[in-house]
Amino acid sequence: MRDASAENSTDRDKTQHPCNVNKLDRACKPHALRQMALVVAGLGWIAVSSVTHASDAKPAPQTTRSAMHEIYGTLSTAFRLSLNEADFGNPAKRKEINKALKALSESAASLRDHEQQLGVDDDYLRRSLADDAREAWLAYERGHYEESRFLLYGMTENCISCHSKRPDDTDFDLAKNFEKDLRKADVLLEDRARIETATRQFDTALNTYEEMFRAQTMTAAQIELSGALLRYLKLALRVKRDPGRAIATLQSFAKREDVPRYLRNHVSKWISSLEEVRKPSSESNLLKAGEALMKKASQQSQFPEDPDSFVYYIEASGVLHRYVESKPTQKADLAKAFFLLGVAESHIGYSYWLSETDHFLETAIRVDPHGPYAEKAYTYLESFTYAGWTGSGGEQIPEDVKAHLDELRTLIDQPAKKKQ
Ligand code: HEC
Q: In the prediction, which pLDDT does 43 show?
């Protein structure tokens, strides 16, 4: 899953990105395992301590929405200027691009630092976004234009992950003009759909994915390998809550002549799971509903990472995110929800750029270090870490990652504090 040789994101000297920035490639993982460096104990309402960051940013904006407007404005400006690769390093444009990237970095830092509304399940993403945006700007300042552009494209993974978790019916119409520019620049369908998701044009993104699934520019197997079907299902289920639309799309995708048998089998399993998920649930308790879906998902898996289970894991994580957002006060329940989110994410987290699995497992430990889920979450987190850092070159767990695990271990092992 992860590459033991991947660089740590805190290494400011990294310059080489062998990847084509015009087509983000799953094989490129310059940021793999960055999460261990990033995950911090910001635990919101059930906080052990509430974390405030020494901020280098402007005063925090009033609401998430106003922070988003700023981020969108600065990102779209920087993005427009990056569409033409040659222009990005063009001395005549340098001042303008530098200004946009600096502003983007500042607005991402201010989103990271503002305390409002966003849940603890989003904390990792806002830190990660702030980190990426800062690195993109610093890389530009150093004259590393390719790296900067690469980071600019990659950081949209943070926007996508955050936006495709929870239901939303409204598209962000102000992005329509930006969308026109993307079309003019002939951005690949797959990348266009990602940028549309990042800028919250959900219907447009679904349409773009559907166009991609019909187009013959990629084979059916390539489409599956790109992760586009999974991304599409996340949007259709978690954001739009429209399994019917996903069923219709998969049915027509299955009619393509180039769908290999293995994929045809997965698609037919997805369709039958979607039919199940579509039925109204009799369970009104979101945690219980999430648990039941997790169980169905694991029953559906015949081997580790079996794609057959995707629909149930996606639906389960959507339900669990809604549960977490309802701000439950029972620590043990919250820890359970985060543990299950971590497990679900380890199956459906497809981004090469970031992994939320560690963050969810760590949060499961921190919210209730002496509760029934801490040990389970720790065991899973440790095995996930070993799996990520052990490869043909042996075991290469960096010292800071080890120290981080030790810290969590101590939290579990130390005697519980007496109630104040
Ligand atoms: C930590 C989670 C998170 C991250 C990361 C994030 N967003 Fe958002 N974004 C949200 C939430 C939540 C809303 C909905 C806010 C509301 O409607 O009050 C939102 C709303 C928006 C909106 C719509 C604003 C409106 O008026 O409807 C835009 C545009 C947007 N985000 C762009 C971005 C871009 C671009 C990025 C990445 C560079 C990004 N966001 C990263 C959580 C996030």
A: 32
What pLDDT shows up at residue 105? 95
71 lines ligand 1 (CB under 6 A): yes
Written as one string, the DSSP assignment of 35-94 is HHHH-----GGG-SS---PPP-SSSPPSSHHHHHHHHHHHHHHHHHHHSSHHHHT-HHHH
Query: Is the CB of residue 118 below 6 angstroms from any atom belonging to ligand 1?
Result: yes
42-51: list long-range contacts, CB under 8 Å, 24+ apart: 42/120, 42/123, 43/120, 43/363, 43/366, 43/367, 44/119, 44/120, 44/123, 45/120, 45/327, 46/120, 46/329, 46/331, 46/334, 46/367, 48/366, 50/115
Residue 419 pLDDT > 60: no
Up-side HSE of residue 184: CA atoms within 13 Å toward CB? 9
- In the chain, DSSP finds a helix count (H) and a strand count (E) of 20, 2
Least confident of 119-133, 165-179, 247-261, 286-300: 165-179
Give the 3-state secondary structure of residue 370: coil
**Are the beta carbons of 99 and 74 closer than 8 angstroms?**
no
| Position 4 pLDDT exceeds 50 | no
- pLDDT for the residue 116: 62
Cα–Cα–Cα angle for 59, 64, 66, rounded to 5 degrees: 70
Ligand 1 center to 252 CA (angstroms): 32
Nearest alpha carbon, ligand 1 atom 36: 159
Residues 6+ apart with CB under 8 A from 126: 108, 111, 112, 118, 158, 162
Q: What is the DSSP string of 115-142?
A: -SS--GGGHHHHHHHHHHHHHHHHHHHT
Pair of tokens at residue 250: 């998969």
- Pocket lining: 129 vs ligand 1, CB cutoff 6 Å: yes
How does the average pLDDT of the chain come out, rounded?
83
Binned at pLDDT 50, 70 and 90, residue 335 comes out as: very high
Q: Provide the terminal-to-terminal Cα distance of the chain, rounded to the nearest Å.
A: 43
Q: What is the average per-residue pLDDT within 367-393? A: 91
Q: Whose CA is nearest to atom 30 of ligand 1?
A: 68
Q: How much distance in Å is there from the Cα of 16 to the middle of ligand 1?
A: 30
Cα separation, 222 vs 224, whole angstroms: 5
